[in-house]
Design a protein that fits this description.
The chain is an alpha/beta fold and 678 residues long. Helix content is 32%, strand content 27%. The model has no long low-confidence stretch (mean pLDDT 91).
């Protein structure tokens, strides 16, 4: 029986799902932060040895990873050089006028991806139409190549001015450098053929600096999994919500920076479609971070103005807001005596005190354990025994200085953590003109269901949705994703000056590149779907809105389509900012095309395994009024249309859901729980 495997690495756990015709099987393993691939390979080896699947049965394996993100945040990128047009050597340090700390005279600016001694210039020059003013200086380039060899660089980024209009100089430079160097050369005209030289330089430098890191990581995974007998090429989750082959990910690792969070949002979208809830606020709460996103009418918000750390990354990605709050977030008391939570985390090692791995600092998970939300004899993932006494000892370090009981100190920790999560949800909803009361909250991740009802109540969200695979939804989401690519090119012309034929010429160029790359992965061209959009703005504005257009005649724009496109922009501008200027001219900044193939995954039902828990009751703290006797329910035993009435603790092998008094809900035939929040 063919098996599809989804693997997502988090800060505390590796989530893994195995899918076949019988359903989904869910597994959790401890992360290995020192060598992420080691934990993945050990997990696969364990499941093979336990007979969960045979290596020869694996037909597809998809992976979401934070390896690229962590390398960028920790400064663990490869030794990288930048080649650019003369006069633009310092663009990475000059950046933009906006400053995060405008009045701080002592602010420490982040180190640029490429240090100044490794930034080189060439006297080539194109004009603003892409015409050659000065040809590529090959003598200068030869000298640069010698310097790069002496400097032992591992990667080179090439970013010439206006190369997005004419890439010939960049390509010629690559050909010459490749003949002399033994390292990857990354061109801005391949990675981001769009205007704004700072963002293009930053994105290209990030991409180049991560190529050796990701190549080593993927090579280790591929070789060692092949030794186990797993044959398919690995697929990697992109930040835009689609998957690509490992080969493509190695060439452009900048596209996988939000790999893990994007998979979770994709899984949430799938659950929303199955439950008929198309307006969702998603909350992915793991061990180290909380990722929130908004889905409107079944569509995930996208952006091209993202950043990782303080490094702008202008490739298309799911619009996700992340904060440092999770089950492993450490509680502490600041100099003013106020209780704080995070952003520092206990991580996978040593982890929260209740994990019994040597951790002693109080965390959010320890607070849940003290309050009775986590069950010591029913460990998360079936492999982790919880030590309630160690959790109490850790929480005591907060309770005693504040003069509180253990339980009230634990409640305080959860309240502080919930306040941070509430602010995160407001960023992607209220601050962008969306009313949370018109959405459902879909909570997932190992800790998401523990906080779901509390966050919903804070924001008056009427409904909470918790999937059957909540604790491993990012891993499941990897299997629901389309295979696809996003392409774009700068236009910078008024819409009134553009004809359907000129736009179609640009779209067909993007389509040709997409078909070539997807055909190389063996994708059937007849299954491909094309989605056209554009970054539009009023003439004179400095920011854009991405607006989709669906042509009336397949993949062919008409004059009527262009008029509809402009009107859609006015409507979107009014929705986002509260006003529209229909008498103003509209400019097309960038033309975009997404090409996708449908996912092969079709089985989101969780397979029930193991002996069900016997009915029991236990005291649980939900608020400061004291413990409440609550029923403990095994989620695996819930039948379709089963009624759920709080107070209750719903245990699952991957995540636990707490249902406070006054909250009721239903379990659907897919095992998804829908709670109505009073």
């Amino acid at each position: 029986m063919a098996k599809a495997i989804g693997i997502d690495i988090g800060g505390t756990f590796i989530d893994l799902v195995v899918s076949d015709e019988s359903g989904l099987r869910l597994f959790k393993f401890a992360s290995t932060p020192d060598a992420p691939e080691r934990g993945v390979l050990e997990a696969l080896d364990t499941l093979i040895s336990q007979g969960v699947f045979a290596a020869a049965e694996v037909s597809r394996i998809a992976h979401g990873s934070t390896v690229a993100t962590n390398a960028l945040l920790e400064g663990a990128w490869a030794r990288t050089a930048l080649l650019t047009t003369r006069g633009f050597r310092d663009v990475l340090e000059i950046g933009r006028q906006n400053r995060a700390h405008l009045y701080d005279l002592n602010v420490d600016r982040p180190d640029p991806i490429v240090s100044r001694d490794l930034r080189f210039e060439n006297s080539e020059r194109l004009d603003s139409r892409g015409q050659v003013l000065r040809g590529l200086d090959e003598a200068e380039l030869d000298a640069v190549a010698s310097s790069l060899i002496d400097a032992n660089v591992e990667a080179v980024a090439v970013m010439f001015l206006f190369s997005y209009l004419n890439p010939e100089h960049e390509r010629a430079a690559r050909d010459l450098l490749e003949s002399k160097l033994g390292c990857p050369i990354t061109l801005s005209s391949d990675v981001l053929p769009e205007f704004r030289e700072y963002e293009r330089a930053s994105t290209t430098a990030v991409c180049a600096s991560l190529r050796p890191v990701i190549e080593r990581y993927m090579r280790n995974l591929a070789l060692k999994s092949a030794d186990m007998g797993i044959a398919p090429e690995w697929q990697i989750m992109q930040s835009n919500g689609t998957v690509i082959s490992a080969t493509q990910a190695q060439n452009e690792p900048v596209r996988i920076l939000l790999s893990g969070p994007a998979a979770g949002v994709q899984g949430a979208k799938t659950i929303g479609q199955l439950t008929g809830c198309l307006n969702l606020i998603t909350m992915d709460l793991g061990g180290t971070s909380c990722d929130v996103a908004l889905i409107q009418e079944g569509e995930i918000g996208q952006t091209t103005t993202g950043a990782v750390g303080e490094h702008p990354v202008a490739v298309r990605m799911n619009e996700i807001h992340t904060i440092g709050a999770g089950g492993g977030s450490i509680a502490w008391i600041d100099e003013g005596g106020a209780l704080r939570v995070g952003p520092r985390s206990a991580g996978a090692v040593p982890g929260p005190a209740c994990y019994g791995r040597g951790g002693q600092l109080p965390t959010v998970s320890d607070a849940h354990a003290v309050l009775g939300h986590l069950l010591p004899d029913l460990p998360l993932g079936g492999s982790l025994s919880l030590d309630i006494q160690k959790a109490k000892d850790a929480i005591r370090s907060i309770a005693e200085p504040l003069g509180l009981s253990l339980e009230r100190a634990a409640l305080g920790i959860l309240n502080v953590a919930d306040a941070a999560m509430e602010r995160a949800v407001r960023v992607i909803s209220v601050e962008r003109g969306y009313d949370p009361r018109q959405f459902s909250l879909l909570a997932f991740g190992g800790a998401g269901p523990l906080h779901a009802v509390s966050i919903a109540r804070r924001l008056s969200i009427p409904q909470v949705i918790v999937p059957a695979a909540a604790g491993v939804l990012s891993a499941m989401g990897l299997l629901t994703c389309e295979v696809g690519r996003d392409y774009g090119r700068s236009i910078l012309r008024s819409m009134s000056d553009l004809s359907p034929s000129s736009l179609m010429d640009g779209l067909r160029d993007l389509e040709a590149r997409g078909l070539s790359e997807l055909n190389a992965e063996g994708i059937d061209e007849t299954t491909l779907r094309r989605e056209i959009s554009g970054d539009l703005r009023y003439l004179g504005q400095s920011h854009e809105l991405n607006v989709r257009i669906t042509p009336g005649a397949g993949f062919e724009l008409s004059a009527v389509d262009i008029e509809t496109w402009v009107e859609s922009f006015h409507n979107e501008h009014e929705s986002r900012f509260g006003h529209a200027s229909r008498d103003e001219g509209v400019e097309l900044v960038a033309l975009r095309l997404r090409i996708t193939a449908p996912p092969a995954f079709s089985q989101p039902r969780v397979r029930l395994e193991g002996q069900l828990l016997t009915h029991r009751e236990m005291p649980v703290w939900f608020n400061g009024s004291g413990p409440v006797v609550s029923q403990v329910i095994d989620r695996r035993g819930l039948e379709s249309q089963a009624r759920i009435v709080g107070p209750a603790v719903l245990w699952g092998i991957d995540a636990t859901l707490i249902v406070p008094p006054g909250v009721e809900g239903m379990c659907d035939d897919m095992g998804t729980i829908v709670l109505e929040v009073a």
